[in-house]
Amino acid sequence: MAREGILIVVSGFSGAGKGTIMKELTGRHEQYALSVSATTREARPGEKEGKDYFFKSREDFERMIEEGALIEYARYVGNYYGTPKAYVEEMLLSGKDVILEIEIQGARKIREQFPNAVLLFVTTKDAQVLRERLKKRGTESREVIQKRLLRAVQESEGIEEYDYLVVNDELNACVAEIHSIIESEHRKIRYNMELVNRVREELRSFSKGE
Ligand code: 5GP
Asked: What is the pTM of this model?
């Protein structure tokens, strides 16, 4: 039997490198399924429909909300972002560990609906690195960068709500660390009750001299 899939939420400040980390992690291990969100934000150069995001008009996004097609959604710097429900449910059922790369309001809603979800927060070792990365990316205007930095200040207030902090200093190390956190999660007793019950049964019959 396939082991039960775990729902993993990855949040982090804009510019912390979540996207790169997720690409590496999913490329290295087949057990992960990365959820693709819907958004009303404009595609950045190089971003692909259905791979980076499902790019939606505001009307289409609001229709998805009404139809209950999203597990959670939030507004971030003037745009909607949300997690399509069907993919997540299907992947979890098939035993994949599903990763949601979402911001903090979404993370809170996931925690309410899936109390066993693992919440990771990715940061750089200091704020200077973040600012430099955002500027270097060159895809956002000065004004949007300022708004994203302001949003990072607000999100930093909520870090205590997460289970693990991961510092993205060296990419390889960071990816290995996240994988090891997830593997440890799979070793929790609650995910291993089938084996536990089997061994219990066997012990019972041995103790009766069978
Ligand atoms: P970006 O515009 O940089 O791609 O994403 C902006 C923020 O929205 C990031 O913090 C990202 O994690 C978050 N985000 C992306 N998809 C979703 C989603 O489906 N739901 C929520 N709540 N946040 C999301």
From this structure: 0.93
